[in-house]
Amino acid sequence: MVLIGIIPFFTFALGTWQLKRLKWKVNLIDELEEKLQLQPISLPRKINLSVIPDFVFRKVVLRGTWDHSHTIILTPRVREGIHGVHIVTPLVRQNGTTILVDRGFVSKENASSPALQQELGEVEVLGMLRTSQSRNLFTPDNKPEDGKWYWTDVDAMADYVGGEQNDVQPVFVEQIFEAETRLKKGIPIGRPATVDLRNAHLSYVITW
Ligand SMILES: *[C@@H]1O[C@H](CO)[C@@H](O)[C@H](O)[C@H]1NC(C)=O
Ligand SMILES: *[C@@H]1O[C@H](CO)[C@@H](O)[C@H](O)[C@H]1NC(C)=O
Ligand SMILES: *[C@@H]1O[C@H](CO)[C@@H](O)[C@H](O)[C@H]1NC(C)=O
């Protein structure tokens, strides 16, 4: 009986706590969406890594050539019910450091399509600055030596691509663009330009 008596208070406390979390998350998403609306910036030749956290979700414009030979394939990824992979290719910036670009989704059957390597000359890339994504309990370890990558570990990826001695910086950009035309050509597709931190706090509030 005592236990049953306590439960309403306990769940009320949980609900209140989730309301606080909801407010915090809404503020955070507003702030990031505002950031995303700002004009794209171009990145300096050598990027000051300690400043990156302040620029996450900012749009950036990059120029350079793809280093297709060091492409990293992130698996497994799903887009609109289709199984596939994400293609991460280093972009060698003219007179600047090399950074990593997640060029987006491609279906499993097209994961080794020659279309992935069809952009050879200098390209201009519009993207969004990101950092390493947290993995959950079920995400396996990356095995770079076997070419198996399951989560974005920016530092490990930069090392794999050549590391500091080859002017590779652990900077990760997700390419942004108009999707459908590319899917049809078998070219990777970037994510939409939105902030998609999971916001489940309202449903927790109601549950509790
Ligand atoms: C990088 O940015 C930090 C913080 O703004 C600054 O303290 C530091 O001097 C910068 N480093 C370089 C090499 O510019
Ligand atoms: C890159 O460097 C070369 C020679 O060092 C120079 O000719 C060229 O204009 C530079 N390009 C840019 C975009 O700064
Ligand atoms: C794979 O690429 C081809 C064109 O190269 C395209 O016709 C096909 O629809 C693509 N497959 C999927 C599942 O997107």
Please tell me about this protein's structure.
By secondary structure, the chain is an alpha+beta fold. It folds into 2 domains: 2-35 and 199-207; 41-185. The protein is 29% helix and 26% strand. A 5-stranded mixed barrel has the order 2-4-5-7-6. Helix 1 runs antiparallel to helix 5. The chain is elongated, with a radius of gyration of 20 Å. The chain starts with a helix and ends with a helix. Residues 82, 107, 109-110, 113, 115, 183, 186 line the site of one 2-acetamido-2-deoxy-beta-D-glucopyranose. One 2-acetamido-2-deoxy-beta-D-glucopyranose is lined by residues 48, 50-51.
Give the helix level as a range of percent. Answer: 25-40%
Q: What number is the mean pLDDT?
A: 85
Rg result: 20 Å
Task: Report the major sheet.
Answer: 5 strands, mixed, barrel
The end-to-end distance, rounded to whole angstroms, is 20 Å
Strand content: 25-35%
Q: What ranges have pLDDT less than 50 throughout 5 or more consecutive residues?
A: none
- Secondary-structure-based class equals alpha+beta
Shape: elongated
Ions, cofactors and other bound molecules: 2-acetamido-2-deoxy-beta-D-glucopyranose
SSE order, one letter for each helix or strand = HEHEEEEEHEHH
Strand order of the largest sheet: 2-4-5-7-6
Protein name: SURF1-like protein
InterPro entries: Surf1/Shy1, Surf1/Surf4
Function: Probably involved in the biogenesis of the COX complex.
Keywords: Membrane, Mitochondrion, Mitochondrion inner membrane, Transmembrane, Transmembrane helix
